[in-house]
Amino acid sequence: MSEQQPYRDAEWIRSVLPHRYPMLLVDRVLEIETDRRIVALKNVTINEPFFQGHFPEQPVMPGVLIVEGLAQAGGILLLEDPARRAGKLIYFMSIERARFRRPVVPGDQLRYEVEVLRQRANHAKLSGRALVDGKLVAEALISSALVDR
Length: 149
Fold this sequence. Notes:
Blueprint: E1 4-5, H1 10-16, E2 28-33, E3 37-43, H2 63-78, H3 82-85, E4 88-100, E5 109-119, E6 123-132, E7 135-148
């Protein structure tokens, strides 16, 4: 059984993922159970660049970015081990059964909960849920592939 890892900060996240502002959509990792599950956070602020056009009068976080945040959290989970991520990238390959339940707006804190459903050497299937204040805002099944840089 894998051991739960301690909290991981933004600096550690940047060491795992190649994403940078404005495309880095994970601010903090609260829990990791190696090769099993992750809980991570994204603080949604009015300063997000996508709010300039989506929508200026009534800002709503695009659903595709919520799913991207779930995929990034999953990528952190799959690349947690430095030996596994050396010289590798993880590509988001497919989305299945994506559902959006309610809008995400400035001031919300997204909680990403992602678990591994199936993992092989270079492919994984993950189940992700995004919540705000304990309420489900989005969910999806995500497939990814580990490739050489």
